[in-house]
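Translate structure to sequence.
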């Protein structure tokens, strides 16, 4: 099989939505008529990744064999490395890798987890990831948590989505919200707290001690993501599991977090290396006895790709992430992943197991310049 072309585009989920709210998708076309689909990190609409795909990656992969996906990934990473592997290039390579794995699955008639050596599990519970809690009152936080409990999540994560330029802005308020949510869900329900890089080291220790007292399961990205040594210091000083890594784009970057002391890492399949990249992270984590709990807030292609990898890992210590409900979830897919009683069931269909609806894509696609 040979790659004959790639088609990359943004999708506007709702009419008139801002460019930075769009999704970034890719179709890779093969000479036997089959199509693989992929997704890039949608930061600022994923536009920078799509431009790299269209202008720098497409010309380099026409005629290549999709089964050479790991060689293609590493060759392009090194050829384009000066565009910056931490960000837009990572998203572009991730989208391509996911699409090539989808093609590979379709070509061989197997779901991706089978090509990874088989699934330890095909039923995956999820945790409800609830954003924007820094701007909510205590009562509003509790109301939103109550709403999400109706989906029967195995755990809940409250994210604070801080602006990262005003550290320790409201620690008493943060603590009040954590206490209120614990009271609401009862003493044993699994909870996580995501500071979204909004704390100083001292602020993180102060808040982390309260989260320990409240029995939270993990404490995510307490300090700035680029302060790797400091993230490790917080992890080492606290008893609660401190996690990080959703803004890490290279395998060496994940190693640095682990060496600093972080014991749960959260790379994102649409940011770093796609399925090939996440598999390498999995090996690294297994060697170090560190938990791999992928970050994933894209509810369709990214989510399916991530679950294919999680299904095939020996250890899956935490549920998979499911972001707040949004229009992004279902409109352009024939079979978008949907939980049943709090659990996603991976289909046995070839490839990723999710299908784009061409008519719906045509209505919403935005061309890339
Ligand atoms: Ca996070």
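Result:
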């Amino acid at each position: 099989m040979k790659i004959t072309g790639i088609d990359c585009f943004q999708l506007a989920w709702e009419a008139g939505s801002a460019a930075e709210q769009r999704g970034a998708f890719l179709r890779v076309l093969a000479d036997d008529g089959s199509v693989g689909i992929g997704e890039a990190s949608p930061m600022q609409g994923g536009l920078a990744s799509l431009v790299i795909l269209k202008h720098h990656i497409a010309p380099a992969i026409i005629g290549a064999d999709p089964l050479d996906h790991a060689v293609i990934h590493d060759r392009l990473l090194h050829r384009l490395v000066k565009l910056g592997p931490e960000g837009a290039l990572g998203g572009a390579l991730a989208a391509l890798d996911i699409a090539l794995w989808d093609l590979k699955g379709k070509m061989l008639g197997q779901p991706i987890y089978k090509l990874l050596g088989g699934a330890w599990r095909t039923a995956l519970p999820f945790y409800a990831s609830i954003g924007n809690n820094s701007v909510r009152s205590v009562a509003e936080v509790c109301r939103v948590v109550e709403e999400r409990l109706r989906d029967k999540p195995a755990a809940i994560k409250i994210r604070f989505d801080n602006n990262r330029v005003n550290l320790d802005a409201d620690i008493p308020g943060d603590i009040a919200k954590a206490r209120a949510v614990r009271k609401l869900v009862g003493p044993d329900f699994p909870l996580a707290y995501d500071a979204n890089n909004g704390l100083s080291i001292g602020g993180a220790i102060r808040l982390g001690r309260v989260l320990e007292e409240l029995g939270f399961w993990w404490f995510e990205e307490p300090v700035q993501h680029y302060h790797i040594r400091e993230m490790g210091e917080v992890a080492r000083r606290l008893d609660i599991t401190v996690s990080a890594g959703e803004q890490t784009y290279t395998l060496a970057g994940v190693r640095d977090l682990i060496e600093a002391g972080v014991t749960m890492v959260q790379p994102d399949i649409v940011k770093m290396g796609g399925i090939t990249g996440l598999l390498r992270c999995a090996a690294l984590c297994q060697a170090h006895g560190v938990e791999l709990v992928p970050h994933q807030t894209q509810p369709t292609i990214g989510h399916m790709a991530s679950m294919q990898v999680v299904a095939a890992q020996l250890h899956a210590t935490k549920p998979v992430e499911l972001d707040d409900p949004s229009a992004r979830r279902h409109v352009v897919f024939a079979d978008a992943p949907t939980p049943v009683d709090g659990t996603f069931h991976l289909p046995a269909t070839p490839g990723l197991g999710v299908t784009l609806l061409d008519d719906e894509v045509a209505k919403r696609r935005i061309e890339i310049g």
